[in-house]
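Table S2 (text version). Query chain:
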Amino acid sequence: MAKNALETAGAERRKEKVMLYNKKYSARVSGARGYAGFRNRLRIKRFLGLINPKPGERILEIGCNDGGLLSALKEREAEVFGVDVNEDALSRIPDLDVRVASAENTGFPSGTFHKICAFEVLEHVPDVQAALREVSRLLVPHGKCYLSVPYEIIRGEQALGDAIFAYGDIRKARSLHLHKLTPKKIMRLTEGLPLKKVFSGLWFIPAPSFVLVLEKT
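Corresponding structure-token output:
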């Protein structure tokens, strides 16, 4: 009975993810016009500079959505891969190596990537600690992970517009942002993992976000 209950709960969570991260949500967060377009162009510019991709590096983006950042990384001759739970978003990326997968279980072999990025993603992930374990597993020694999470006083405040636009329900903001994270909280979740902090800061991209860089020791 316990196993059946766990399987049912897991199925319900997967169903909720499919409902939340749908075509309308993807269109909202990957828009090319207005505020969304300005935000996405600024983020790609700032994150591209942070990652500083080199030719031949294998780079994974967790939560790649429509592949805007991946395309920019590929232009720098990096070997890029992406995962996202939003199948609708991935269906619009015909020329990149992307797959439907979660942050907690990407399906790639251990030690595959030189760099991993997950920008404005961890707050959406049910099990952040499992996602960080997956990052640690996937990185080569001295590989780096680049993260950003929204700066929020109240969990979900930066998702209010997305919730209204995509679902017509402001309450969905707290279903989108499952956690209110800081670099300190993230580092606590890395205890026991071979990950050390090499940079953290508060960036405005354009809303305030914590940015964190980890290195696998």
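Notes on Table S2: The CA atoms of residues 59 and 115 lie 5 Å apart. The longest strand covers residues 139-150.
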